Amino acid sequence: MAEEPNTPSTAAKDPPVITVLQLLDEPPGGIPLSLEVVTLTWHDRQRSRQRLVSDRGTELRLMLPRGTHLRDGDLLYADAQRQIRVKAQAEPVLLIQPENVMQMGQVLHQMGNWHRPAQISPQGQILLLADDPLRDWLAHMGIPFQSVLHAFEPNLLAHSH
After folding, report:
1. 90, 93, 97, 123: most buried by Cβ count inside 10 Å?
2. Would you say 12 and 61 are in contact if contact means Cβ atoms under 8 Å apart?
3. Structural domain spans, the chain
4. What are phi and psi of 159, to 5 degrees?
5. Does the structural domain 18-88 have CATH classification 2.60.260.20?
6. In the CATH scheme, what is the homologous superfamily, with its name and number, of domain 90-151?
7. Greatest CA separation for the chain
8. Mind listing the pLDDT tens digit of every residue in the chain (161 residues)?
């Protein structure tokens, strides 16, 4: 059978999709030739099964064990030429600065009731994902806070009953 004129004899192939089945340990050796990142919000870092595209266009398919939570810096893929890592995206959060232990207890008690994850700093600041009901409650209680963009990495995770 003859080829059609002006038809390429070989079709351009799409690059393969990388399937990620588990997080990797740090590879031995030096700095890779190329570092790629997938930038994800807190909610996206909780999804163990999803399709992603790195900042350089590499497609990945996450098929991690259920319950896997991605953290900033996690290594998803590595070979001799490149590494692909997770980057925590800065997102709207409320930076709460309780003035005393009573306010700290009130905030954490309420966040537990609302089943909200929280990030607490060694300086006693609390970071929570921003939303209007939380802003309203904090203002009503007179607890100082400010809206900021920051990567959210909770160290206190809420759970369902």
Report:
1. 93
2. no
3. 18-88, 90-151
4. -140, 160
5. yes
6. UreE, C-terminal domain (3.30.70.790)
7. 83
8. 333 344 444 445 667 788 988 888 887 776 667 899 999 999 999 999 999 999 999 999 999 999 899 999 999 998 888 899 999 999 999 999 999 999 999 999 999 999 999 999 999 999 999 999 999 999 999 999 999 999 999 986 655 44
